[in-house]
Amino acid sequence: MDRDAMYQSLSDRFDRLDEKLEVLGNAVARYEERLAAGNTKFDRLEWRLDQIENRVNAIENAVSQMGGKTVVWERAAWVVFSAIIALLATYLK
Fold this sequence. Notes:
mainly alpha
């Protein structure tokens, strides 16, 4: 009987250990699901950030190309404006 009690005690211990391992396995599975969801969300955010970066680069290139043309037009406008002021000053004396 002593031997049967020892086997029963070991069996009970193994059952408790099995239950604990099952709980731990479920917790690990939930953690893996959360991690996978987080990775998916991170990948999506990274993709969106890349798209924004590409748009910003395109806008910077467009602005830099327009910048040279704008400077020329601005200077031409100032020359025309100052010529008009000079003409008015000459003829309104």
